[in-house]
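2024-03-11 09:14:02 INFO receiving multi-entity request
2024-03-11 09:14:02 INFO entity count = two
2024-03-11 09:14:03 INFO echoing inputs for audit
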Amino acid sequence: MRRHPLDGRVALWLLAGALVPAGLVAQAPRRDEAAAATAILAAGRGATPVLCELAARTIESQWGWGGGGDIRAPRDAAVRAALLIANHRLADPAAVPLLSAALADADACVRRLAAPLLGRLDHPTARAALRAALRDESSTTREAAAFGLGFTEDPATIPALLGGLQDPVARVRVASAWALGEIEDPRAIGALVRLLREDDDAEVRAAAAWALGRIEG
Amino acid sequence: MPFALDVAIKASLLLLLAAATVAVARRAAAAERHFVWTLALAGLLILPVLAVALPWRLPVVPAPVARPTASQPDQAASDVPAFRVTAPQEGAGDARTALPAAPRSVGAEPASPAPSPRSSLLDAWSLERGLRAVWIVGLGLVLARLLVGVLALRWLLRGAREVGDREWIAALEAASERLDLTAPVRLLESPHANMPMAFGVRRPVVILPMEADAWPAELRETVLLHELAHVRRGDVLSNLVGQVACAVYWFHPLVWGAARRLRMEAERACDDLVLRAGAPPSAYAGHLLEMAQTAGTMRALALAVPMAQRSEFEGRVLAILQPDVARHPLKRHAAAFGAFLLAAVAVPLAALGPARPESAQAESRATRAEVAQAAPVAHAEAVHAAELQAPTANPDPRPSPDPDRTTSPNQDAEQLPQGGATATAGLIAALADDDPAVRLAVVHALGERQDTAAINALLQALRRDPSREVRRMAAWALGEVEDARAVPGLVAALREERDVETRRQIVWALGEIESVDAVSGLGAALRTEDDPETRRMIVWALGEIESADAVPHVVAVLRDADVELRTKAAWALGEIESPAAVEPLATALAQERVVEVREMIVWALGEIEDVRAAPALEAALRDTSLIVRRKAVWALGELDELRTAPAGLIAALRDADREVRRTAAWAMGEIQDPAAVPGLVALLRDADLETRRTAVHALGEIRGTAAVEALVAALRDEDPEIRRLAAQALGNR
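2024-03-11 09:21:47 INFO inference complete, emitting structure
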């Protein structure tokens, strides 16, 4: 009996044809983003301030080590995790709940790392989560949220950040000013000049000056 | 890129590939073409599934990078990422500590519940949703059409009854046998059917119109053969694949076209099967014609395979009647190979995606490395310029909490009228702030803004501020503003300033501004300055300004005890390119003991291009250092109006060093002295191809019969490349 052409042997060939390119492609980076975010937050928990800063800067700047296999220098888990994720711009909204919870974490380094991760996550739900966190009861959460909004490059977040400039806690105002400087929208100039002139806190005034230097026009 | 667009583009690629395959395989049988279309349409259905399910991405197109890497020049240049956790050197000082650090709060408060994500109706999300809704509506409509087909089939079946006629059953069995079909096929007749058709995948059915009983045996035979051929080929299934692909990609015209082709090829493949089973073509074509006429206006039912449809009829009949058309069925190995190809194309196609920023970055890094490698080493310029401009990189204080990102330069040209004025005015007012950290941030911001309106305020800060960090930053800011109006104030401040770091920063600013007005002030400072590094920076700044007025000041330090200062002085004179520096440089070359300085002097003489440097450079051809000799050969070739090749340069054509020989050959092409011809002819035998090429080129430049004869002789060279170049050189004469 002769069978239909799409028989078992054809199926085997289909499988083989799928496996060959699959093997070639498999070396490309995996994109399990929620897992990556979890890993980096876990690695950052309890890290010393210097190492945490190092890790955060790596996330912020998206630098890699070029090679990948060449990671020798940093022995610390936080840095390694940061380097792993450095080449990785998150885009998966699945990571948002995880990261927005981390904004409210008790650990300073977890908040520090979650903010740029969330800010750079290119999805509207991430920005919505940051805006919501800017109204949180805890000032450290608000600070982390303002900080994260600085990474969104989204002018739509300006009203929320202008509100952050009025925050009773100085560090939230600092973070909000910093974020407005990052977003570089001239609409923030008036509020920043006022802050520079009137704020009682020197750090806030310095942040306002810094932001004014960033904004063109 | 939106997922739908991504998939649509990939679908187009797949279909175009299929169309190309069919077009290329012109002589293929209809069964094979049908298989290609089936695979392509099946691939379309797999594509979105794969795109979601595959755990990898093949980056191809660089995705838009939010921040251009070009704004991070110094980081991109080095392979190891600088984190800049340590304070920048020179002039930046502790500036950054005072500035708004990225908030890293330490005060641990009890964690509050995570806020729930809330999506705004106004953002892109809703657009995506809208598109999805439109797509679902389209999908529903096409699927509904399919469903109507199914219902129509049911309606057909309702009135149908099994054909009990012995003749029919015998004909069915005979046809099955001729087609190698073992699966049992039910034969029904229905009052609603107006033409024979086949359907059903697992329990195939052939349905006949009531009038079929009146058909002659011959017609019955062909009809059964045709319908059983559909069953045998599994056309119902492939047709279903095409219909579903149309439903999913309803917005995609190519998919509709492909599905139509699929049906057409199925019919033709069945015709081929029937003809191979022995039906005479002319009779079969006649029967088809009959069917088509009875079919009238009946629309094809989506899930059944009707025997004849008018639209595609002509081509079919022609194909049937054509004697030399390939009619073989699909061969097993062809099917297997096609399946392999589909998988091999669809999987990577699905994995294709926009490249992540880092690959773009890596790319630019790679090209940068390539460029660096490709840069000709013979020309000292690039090397030295890079080395000497190093001081410029240092003064950037980068006090930002996020020092990785600096705004791009050249933004002083356009200033938004109101906001800019407000911001600058607000910042200037804040220069009176009590807190030095605030003033530092203000001065930095003014430097970032590069607003010339701030020049006077910045000069005030530079000369009056009690904090040297602020003064240093003010000098940096004035260098960033880069306006010549600041020069007198900067020169005065350079005279007054007691902090050495601030003085260096002022010198750096003057080197950035590159105004001639700074020359005398810098020259005076060079005489009084004690700090070696500041003196080097002054000489660097004078080199940057490139004014002949600076020559006496720079020449004065050509014999300085500081080796680095001497090197920089030679570099600066090479930048200034004033003939007034030739004699001092030649004298210094004769007396200089350090190789690096001699090399730089030779480079400077080559840059100045004054023919009076020739004797000194010829002497340098006998230098003990190979590096100096190489550079001297190059410099001699650079000299303007040198028309007689020095004996030493002709001798250099026979030098043991390949680079000396090659550069000498190049220099001969510049000098164009016929005396060099014998030496160049000898170089045509050189082991190095590039040297041979350069020699041919030089011969082409030199006038006179000797060079022509040499080129004519080179036309018979055994090396075709040399023959070609010689012919070219002769042709250019």
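2024-03-11 09:21:48 INFO post-check: DSSP finds 34 helices and seven strands in chain B.
2024-03-11 09:21:48 INFO post-check: The first helix of chain B runs from residue 3 to 24.
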